[in-house]
Specification:
The chain has 426 residues and is of the alpha/beta class. The chain contains 16 helices and eleven strands.
């Protein structure tokens, strides 16, 4: 299924009158406060978030997986689903592939299909947390950190293969997330595991094309619950420094211990020019992979406040690669992704409303109450009319989720793919 401009125009009609009133009111309020509405709309319209290919079907837990009807059964269908999201939201302009789940059979055809949807290929993701069919070595006790050189070399070769695949698609970055670690005290040597990981990453780094980046992800626990080799942002930062200027830390919102000050991590990494990528999700207890903004919307806003400040004041840091990384166990995956995209844009828009000049003055004067008021005034602003206007300007839906349901998209996908289709790779 493909959503046409005619479809969008027809579904937008019933929402236009209310939107025009809401947008006019908000624009007036913001302009009187000195906000540049046109500049904000431009930034919102340009802001694109990559959709991971593995998030387009139903996710799972350690106990089971409950499929969702009409799931994309191959890479072509996954690209079509991202095309649907992008047509509705005008915010999902890229797809991030996971290898070996999403190896193209015809690279030219895949690139042409993505281009027809206005979609680019974002970071490619390697997989050394699962043993692949016919693999000679096992990753049961680690991959890049393994005590076995043969296992490490297999994992290195896989990552280099992933780079070559991504290069043929026009991708410009590789994301490495390791499940390497230990479940019990004494199971492994911390120093040797870290040394092996650094040496392995350096070998992968040397294979990168000149215009590529290496993103090093971190996570404190799971699937190993005693230690993880790359357990925090400091370890990732240290490894990125050891690799070189094209290597960066990747921050995943779910990959932190409870109550970690993620906005401070973001600020530090951007100051040092080493924040390369950002994975959005939400959580209550740990790496819950919930819909963005569903549990901690104010925390997300504070993180975006740090990101906006960094993007404006840290030219030493590249523009971050944005991606959603979530698991949809209960909801329609496409509806969940739309809600996440909306929450991301909302947090970004609110952060753009923070008067950084006044905030800086209040900070210098140690006016703590004023600092809080400036942040919360921006956070309490209903910015949804701005988001809707940015989508409308770019040719999207005023109300993406409502349009998705008005157009019976899921019903059409079930008719095309069947009720028992299962997303590939999961």
């Amino acid at each position: 299924m493909k959503i046409s401009q005619q479809h969008l125009s027809e579904t937008n009609k019933k929402y236009v009158p209310a939107h025009e009133n809401n947008f006019a009111f908000l624009s007036d309020v913001l302009q009187k406060k000195g906000d540049d509405v046109a500049a904000i709309l431009k930034k919102l319209g340009d802001f694109q978030v990559a959709i991971p290919s593995w998030a387009l079907g139903a996710g799972g837990t350690r106990f089971g997986r409950f499929g969702f009807q009409g799931e994309p059964g191959n890479l072509e269908q996954k690209i079509d689903d991202v095309g649907l999201l992008h047509a509705l939201t005008q915010t999902a302009g890229a797809i991030s592939l996971h290898i070996p789940w999403d190896i193209p059979k015809d690279y030219t055809a895949i690139r042409e299909q993505a281009a027809a949807h206005g979609i680019l290929f974002d970071a490619v993701n390697s997989n050394t947390f699962q043993d692949q069919v016919n693999a000679k070595e096992s990753y049961r006790f680690g991959s890049l950190s393994n005590t076995s050189k043969a296992v490490r070399q297999q994992a290195i070769a896989h990552n280099i293969d992933v780079v070559n695949i991504g290069n043929r698609l026009g991708s410009k970055s590789l994301t490495v997330w390791l499940a390497d670690g230990t479940s019990f005290p004494g199971q492994g040597n911390f120093q040797k595991a870290l040394q092996h990981t650094q040496e392995s990453l350096q070998e992968i780094y040397t294979a990168l094309p000149d215009d590529w980046k290496l993103f090093i992800e971190y996570k404190p626990y799971e699937p190993n619950f005693y230690s993880t080799v790359i357990q925090d942002w400091g370890t990732s930062f240290m490894l990125a420094q050891a690799c070189g200027e094209k290597a960066y830390t990747l921050v995943d919102l779910g990959h932190h211990l409870p109550n970690t000050n993620i906005e401070q991590i973001v600020a530090t990494l951007m100051l040092k020019g080493k924040l390369g990528g950002f994975h959005f999700n939400d959580s209550k207890y740990g790496d819950d992979d919930l819909t963005v903004g569903s549990v901690k919307p104010y925390a997300l806003f504070l993180i975006f406040n740090a990101l906006v400040y960094g993007m404006e004041n840290n030219p030493q840091n590249p523009y971050p690669a944005w991606m959603i990384d979530a698991s949809h166990n209960i909801k329609d995956p496409l509806e969940d992704l739309m809600q996440s995209l909306e929450a991301i844009q909302e947090a970004y828009a609110k952060a753009l409303l923070v008067d950084q000049e006044q905030l800086n003055e209040a900070q210098r004067a140690h006016d703590v109450a004023r600092c809080q008021e400036l942040l919360q005034d921006a956070y309490r602003t209903d910015v949804r009319p701005l988001l809707a206007q940015a989508r409308l300007t770019n040719g999207g839906a005023l109300e993406p989720l409502k349009a998705y349901r008005d157009l019976n998209v899921r019903k059409a996908l079930v008719q095309e793919r069947g009720a028992n289709s299962i997303a590939s790779g999961l």
